[in-house]
């Protein structure tokens, strides 16, 4: 459970994609350098937090100059491992699975979905944006022959752990889990969960707290525009 | 920025849906009570963390007895505000928007999507699982007449902040944001982000770290099953 020396805290790691996203926006707007103060205002976190976060990776800022946007963008890209290519598959070709295959943002960022697997005969043989839906019986062979890095799991919760463990035993080391259950996997497998319902419940909690604090529900405020 | 006295930390709030999920599973399996130790093993967090978390809400455990599952489930349900009904709309009837309307887990939990809004004439007039897709021009009227609590935003990033602010000015206080951008909203509006690409990047980071540590990419390990 102890972090080893080079290990970066989960909180920092979770913020990296956000830095990457903002720096990408700056690049697109042809902004070549930015101070931690300016970046702080854009990202709505403190400048000191930004400096602290980025120091984890060797502190790319220069006093009086700020950060070189392109350099920092490319460094974070490397740190995130986005300079490499990954093979993805989707397991479960239902609504969420199909939506993810259709999600063009992924392609723009170089994440390529190689195949979809399902048990439903009505889906098998279909293609979604050029990606074929195969029978789940073919998954083992496909995985073993195609060096699959990440499985996107959108299977029913009752099957999620079994599927994840099968995939792990065939060499898939990354699970992006949309099943509404915490999957148990071997130690040498990494998991990132997207528990949509949990996220919505968190929103309801915050909303409910807001309503209670401000007594919103008892009033209407049509004229407040 | 200071927390007020009754405020519970974000970390605890973010764990609550998970407790709720596990307790719901226990209820379904007709388990009526559970010790923090047993719950700890199931949830893979320490028993002391569980006790600490649940103490935030008055400590429902009893020494030698453990937690009453149904009672705790219902208390967390109330804390999350899930004993109330919320009106939801989806703004953006594309892939993710449609998948969310089709996502039956929401209905089972009593989250009801009332309408979908889009600009695309090909989508307007369609129904998705009985939910109508309206022209976005009709959104203001609909929102004002239907006491909408939460807008699920799946619009392009360039439009997300404008849409969120329009909705906020019409009285929508909760934004579940799937747009790949951090939206700026008034202080009396709560936001929960689902940045899918950020989540996937975090997974790539972890995967890359794993590969580097274990030199996986340089070897194949077909015979390790």
Compute the separation of the termini of chain A in Å.
Answer: 52 Å
Shape assignment of chain A: globular
Q: Count of helices of chain A? A: 9
Query: Which structural class fits the helix and strand makeup of chain A?
Result: alpha/beta
Helix percentage range of chain A: 40-55%
**Proportion of strand residues of chain A:** 15-25%
Subcellular location (chains A, B): Cytoplasm
GO biological process, one term (chains A, B): negative regulation of DNA-templated transcription
Organism (chains A, B): Candidatus Fimicola merdigallinarum
DNA-binding region (chains A, B): 18-57
Characterization of the model:
The structure is a homodimer of 225-residue chains. Chain A is of the alpha/beta class. Helices cover 44% and strands 16% of the residues of chain A. Chain A has helices spanning 10-28, 36-43, 47-55, 69-79, 95-102, 104-108, 139-146, 157-169, 196-214; strands spanning 33-34, 67-68, 87-91, 112-118, 127-128, 131-135, 150-153, 174-177, 190-193. The longest helix of chain A is centred in the first third of the chain and has 19 residues, at 10-28. At the A-B interface, α1, α5, β9 and α9 of A face α1, α5, β9 and α9 of B. Chains A, B: It comes from Candidatus Fimicola merdigallinarum. Chains A, B: Residues 18-57 bind DNA. Chains A, B: Its main location: cytoplasm.
């Amino acid at each position: 459970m102890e972090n080893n020396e080079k290990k970066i805290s989960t909180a920092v790691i979770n913020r990296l994609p956000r830095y990457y996203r903002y720096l990408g926006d700056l690049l697109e707007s042809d902004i070549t350098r930015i101070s931690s103060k300016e970046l702080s205002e854009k990202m709505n976190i403190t400048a000191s937090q930004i400096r602290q976060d980025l120091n984890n990776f060797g502190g790319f800022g220069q006093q009086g100059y700020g950060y070189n946007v392109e350099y920092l963008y490319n460094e974070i890209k490397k740190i995130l491992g986005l300079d490499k290519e990954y093979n993805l598959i989707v397991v479960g070709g239902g609504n969420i699975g199909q939506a993810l295959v259709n999600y063009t943002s992924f392609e723009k960022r170089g994440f390529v979905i190689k195949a979809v697997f399902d048990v439903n005969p009505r889906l098998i043989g279909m293609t979604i944006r050029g990606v074929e839906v195969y029978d789940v019986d073919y998954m083992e062979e496909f995985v073993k022959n195609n060096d699959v890095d990440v499985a996107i799991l959108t299977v029913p919760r009752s099957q999620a752990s079994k599927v994840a463990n099968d995939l792990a035993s065939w060499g898939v080391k990354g699970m992006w889990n949309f099943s509404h259950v915490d999957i148990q996997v071997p130690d040498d497998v990494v998991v990132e969960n997207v528990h949509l319902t949990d996220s919505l419940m968190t929103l309801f909690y915050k909303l409910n707290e807001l309503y209670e604090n401000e007594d919103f529900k008892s009033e209407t405020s049509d004229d407040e525009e």
